[in-house]
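notes to self, project folder thing:

trying the whole complex as one job this time. last attempt i did each chain seperately and stitching them together was a nightmare. four parts in total, labels are on each line so i dont mix them up again. if this works i'll redo the older ones the same way
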Amino acid sequence: MKETATLLISCPDRKGILAEITGFIARNGGNIIHADQHIDFQKHIFFMRIEWDLENFKIPKEKIATAFSFIADKFSMKWNLKFNTETPNVAIFVSKYDHCLYDLLYRFKTGEMKGNLKLVISNHRNLENGVKMFGVDFYHFPKTKETKKEVEEKEIELLKKESIDLIILARYMQILTDNFVRQFPNRIINIHHSFLPAFVGARPYHRAYERGVKIIGATSHYVTEELDQGPIIEQDVVRVTHRDTVEDMIRKGRDLEKIVLAKAVRWHLENKILVYDNKTVIFD
Amino acid sequence: MKETATLLISCPDRKGILAEITGFIARNGGNIIHADQHIDFQKHIFFMRIEWDLENFKIPKEKIATAFSFIADKFSMKWNLKFNTETPNVAIFVSKYDHCLYDLLYRFKTGEMKGNLKLVISNHRNLENGVKMFGVDFYHFPKTKETKKEVEEKEIELLKKESIDLIILARYMQILTDNFVRQFPNRIINIHHSFLPAFVGARPYHRAYERGVKIIGATSHYVTEELDQGPIIEQDVVRVTHRDTVEDMIRKGRDLEKIVLAKAVRWHLENKILVYDNKTVIFD
Amino acid sequence: MKETATLLISCPDRKGILAEITGFIARNGGNIIHADQHIDFQKHIFFMRIEWDLENFKIPKEKIATAFSFIADKFSMKWNLKFNTETPNVAIFVSKYDHCLYDLLYRFKTGEMKGNLKLVISNHRNLENGVKMFGVDFYHFPKTKETKKEVEEKEIELLKKESIDLIILARYMQILTDNFVRQFPNRIINIHHSFLPAFVGARPYHRAYERGVKIIGATSHYVTEELDQGPIIEQDVVRVTHRDTVEDMIRKGRDLEKIVLAKAVRWHLENKILVYDNKTVIFD
Amino acid sequence: MKETATLLISCPDRKGILAEITGFIARNGGNIIHADQHIDFQKHIFFMRIEWDLENFKIPKEKIATAFSFIADKFSMKWNLKFNTETPNVAIFVSKYDHCLYDLLYRFKTGEMKGNLKLVISNHRNLENGVKMFGVDFYHFPKTKETKKEVEEKEIELLKKESIDLIILARYMQILTDNFVRQFPNRIINIHHSFLPAFVGARPYHRAYERGVKIIGATSHYVTEELDQGPIIEQDVVRVTHRDTVEDMIRKGRDLEKIVLAKAVRWHLENKILVYDNKTVIFD
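result (full assembly):
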């Protein structure tokens, strides 16, 4: 695998941004591998993802950020720089349902996901053996209404100690406090088992059944302080008919949840997502 | 085309219903062409659609209803009987958008829809020539808040005079009064330009854009007194990305709306829809 | 769970079949739970799946077949009778790819699949530990061109000894001989990684890439003596673009293969598939 | 509407191409609106679509091509330059089926398609009135095996006289000769009523029915000398079941064909398609 650098950039739209960025890379001998830009014409914002080969790039890795910051400042950019040789550390939160968990364990194990799955946290013990079978650490953090805040502090401590970059809520049935969420902005991905904004909150399949919908969905999104209102990363749907019971919907939904969550995680790990204005730009 | 009879039935579930219905047809020499049943095990309701060839059927057409009513009473059935030789009369309501209208005009003209499209009603005049070009009568019924009730009375009068069996709201931008709706129970089909129950009400594409969804949808449903809450007949979706503006969503949505509305209308005209409990059973 | 019986029936279409079958069940006190029929009007064949509750059914389980055979003979039916209390025995054949295998191991383990997964056969050893981790027996049957016939004999012996009812080829990279296939008619399900009949045979993703298709697919089918020509059970597709490399197609295809294969297996185990004329009728 | 210029470029991949192109636009005061690039790493080819606002662009429209040709030559580019103020001239070829034709007539009339629909050519007369109703010229060119070559010469003469840029085969049931096809490279779009490469040639729905597929498709592609083998622009699919007759497939297929063909035409008219190596890059 070639070593590459990736810049994710957003800034007010103006003339010459693209020429400036690509000029910076070209002048320094970088070979651009992927470049994708997008302009929101309503809000006049420029977005870009650009990835280039570091072989023969004249600026050493550790000095690229400084060198680029001159351009960044000129255009008032928000930006971050990642190297494909850095592997993000990942934690999964789970409760009792295991379909998304096993799906992710398999994808991390086989290398489909470019991340280092360090640990699984659960408020129950039933999935402990399954997790350990995959050679991943398991932590049991039971919670009650009364202990939630204090337990979360311990979770945060562990996550920071392990330098966790991404938290995946794989059907975690606890609502995180605002304090927790604020520690990991745009770094907690949840899977909600409905086609948001339909059926926000609890028991979406039951409510979909009651409403008599003909299609059910799943939505992966970044977690923000407002429940099920964070930036949507991916959604998908599957048909149901009058013959499908709630149990059938739950079964069909499981396959949907796995795929929608896995896509979001993969895009995040490959630095393909830019968040702005409670929306996502996906550079796929 | 063979002459056939179709029964749509719902009743409390009990043993022996299917044997009784099929026995009735077999004893009288009828050849069953389609039979589809469904049981709602939660509510213990039996549903059936059964269609049989009338050639050699021993009971004359006009006496079938009476003959069947003995069975129907025994099982407390709600039922209706239709003959494929009867063509329902159809009216379309439209405002300024014409994509669903032209799509339907084409489908009725070519015979894809088994209905007699008698007239189009609009609160504007801009589509008058287009409608007449297809040889269909056009009526202009402008409405204001003040005149709505009284104009609706004239519309109802016309619809009854023309023996209209089905009313299609092809992006009709007026909300019908409860009085109007009650005159045509399960006989008014609307197309809503969102994936219900997401984005009930006005400007769903704009709200979908604001929310940053990754899929947009359209929903056809029977109109009830509560806005966008009637029994859903069909839904479909199409992907959007961050690159799609509201205008792109509206464009993509047009194709979706046409297809979702046309499916619902076709199923209704072919007696394939049973409504119960604010849901639909589609015997497709 | 209620004990139920299911009949799968096909026969030349004639008047009165449905009345006769449902009459048989009703007369004997059976409560019909599902009934679905289909007529092929081109070939004049009648198909049916009917399932009824055995509680209070007057004919004892072991005599139902005999009792029904009088009706079956009268209408020249092909039929089979299954009880939901009987759990079919299942074997999986696999080579080196493990995505479909793990997906199935998970579904059998969690009870989503109503079958008794007794063993996995592979021509390689690399998946042995993974299979045993799930508590399933693993058999290693390496094959060469020269030994194929003789190895297959041993496989057949094992499958018969273990009373295997269904064989799943979960990306098994060996072509079975006609002799093997003939021993298990309509009881071997394969997953082919293309949208058949496009890209029959080897390396379908590579050929899809070469052809520049915009959608790739997967197909589950019963295995017959002609390669990739057996009755199709299920197909599904996923979009690709010019940005997708062959490797991306393979990755996207994996999720597709898992879902399409799992659906076919579930339908088979729930007695929902009738095969005729190299096609399937799916009573879902 | 702003006046914009669009460049479609392909060339051997090397360092600095993007910087050179964007530098050219920036230096001359152009504001880039869309920029999308793609690299085929297997064949080392660089592709780009770039669109910029001509307001304040220092090079006058008629001199842009000359100015850019210096860069183009340096990188051995194949390229073309279009202005959004130029509206391409379009001709539709049709036989007896009218669903794609009416769909396109509607889309051109309402301005959804940015093209100037100048004429319709048919080998039959049955759609003449329908076409004229939309104010479009209709030409009747009947063909037999014997007259085909000579009739095509007249068609070519007409198309050249009317400066036709794009020819749409909207279910045109005649195979064009190699001579005709060579006159309009990558400028003839056909709709084939199957999921290519499955069911190349005649009667694809009948063959799909015979094969028992569970999904049918439609494919739009540029016409090349080999039948149904040209670069695929777009494909889509719809589910079918054992209940669908050939007639049902044809009906479902009509809606598919309309949408798949319309997408391809729209992308072509908006200069979003690059053809190479018998494939397409779609800059959507």
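what i see at first glance: Residues 92 and 168 of chain C are 5 Å apart (CA to CA).
need to look closer tmrw
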